[in-house]
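Here's a chain:
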Amino acid sequence: MKELRIGFIGSGWINEIHAASLLKQPGVTLAAIYNHNLSRATAFNQKILGGAAVCFDDHRKMIQTQKLDAIYVAIPPGAHGGEVEFAAEHGIHLMLEKPIALSMERAESIADVVKKAGVVCEIGHHMRHSEPARKLKDLLTSGEAGRPLFLNARFWTNGLFPAWWRDPNLGGGQLVEQAIHMYDLARYYLGEPDVISAFADNLNHRQIPDYKVDDVSASVIRFKNGSIASITASNCSDPKTPGTTLTLQCQNVIAEFSAPDKATFAYTDGRVADQLWKDGFEIRREDVKSENSMYDDLAADFLAGIREGKPTRSSIEDGVESLRLVLAASKSAQQNGAAQKM
């Protein structure tokens, strides 16, 4: 097995999680860390890697000198300054945290360079990697689930998060930066959207001077296959019990996610209304829970894409299209819910 040398662009908490997952994978060396603030890269290195990596405050120098096979890029979406393109042009495989940009022009430009370079690129939509998420996707792909009908999802939390997150020019707001996970799952299960209408506002954090982003949002989406989704996000929920939940109703099965890595599947076998109560029919139920961290499975998927040429579970195209959907939701909200044709 070829030893893969991995670098990091960004040294925040999400790359700490990614690094911990990579350390569990065989044949990996975590070799280099970039942060424009060198002291932050050094602190990351000591805390996570015991000082084993080389630290840089110049991403070009890191890429040119360290002979890296892959880089994890986790910086605010509004802070990208050509790091992804420079790495791709040097033949380095990429794991990009979502969202990959704050505009479609920028996202499509990044995607064009990545595809032209021919490198493996995975997007950090880690919720696709849970065991119940994979099972549900398999049921849909095989046809066993039947036609998807209605999806309801919520991303509810309560926190101030880093200063960049509260700046719309760096983070894009909760709808764009956090709730994109649920919009991405909607695309993953239902296909491509047709039209979306949304509302968003900052209702509970106006007393905080630098909090300039939404703290509540809601959208309704019609998909090209006729299915419908409703997605809400809130940064006003009970801080002790944040909720990231999802329900997908299909013709033959209903999947209830009480958490991204835990779900109950109810097999209705296509019966509706009174048919479910006739003849003592009992709905078979199956509890599915991930044994591994979603981040561990994302890392394994990315490395398999590099070593074996397998398609990644979340491609650069997914990064572009899921961003397109949340930006359409944001635009609809800015226009008081005006429907946006996709």
